[in-house]
Amino acid sequence: MLELLLDADGLLAVHKPAGLLVHPSRMDAHEHDTLLTRAEAQFGQRLQPLHRLDKGTSGLLLLARDSATAARAGAWVRDGLVIKHYLALVRGWPAADAGLIDHPLARDPERPSQGQPQLEAQTRWCCLRRLAWPLVTRPGFADTRAALLRIEPLQGRRHQIRRHCKHAGHPLIGDATHGKGALNRALAAHLGLSRLWLHAWRLQLPDGRRLQADPGPEWNQFIA
Q1: Does CATH place domain 82-224 in 3.40.1010.10?
Q2: Which of 7, 54, 79, 143 is catalytic?
Q3: Is the pTM higher than 0.70?
């Protein structure tokens, strides 16, 4: 059963587990166990997801019960009126405590950037905690450093957080596409868990309602 966080005015908010697709994709067309199939079975009707979370990302996801709600709330998401905050574990220690990544992104991250439209994209971030483990993952360094960030993407470009973190030199831990494979494998063995360390934590709707999906217990080791 999915954890239900909101059920009002045609809107549902649920807590998506890490490792679960929102709906079948081109790369995973054979996958039948998705958040959408689970939610439709749980709530007994057809539903429409209002935004995306990558398969590896956990946390808050909005769904619409009907087409009118999907149109209304989908416009909120498209126009940037839904404020989203994520938790992310990234490689290294940022030089500052907070900042803004302002870097245009190609529309489709799975195609070469050259020749594609470059879309405006900004991501605010704040460092919540700096961590270090006595684990050698780079020659000449006696420990491995990481940082827990609170991240707010101002748009919803595909893989925006993952691509912006890579651009800033602090890729997400566990990101197989934009991260560092050797580091990911070493930390997965050290932490005893392999996952993309990105969690959709908090969300504010245009009417002021605030929703929160508490991160799973695996995050406790990073959250003071």
Answers
A1: no
A2: 54
A3: yes
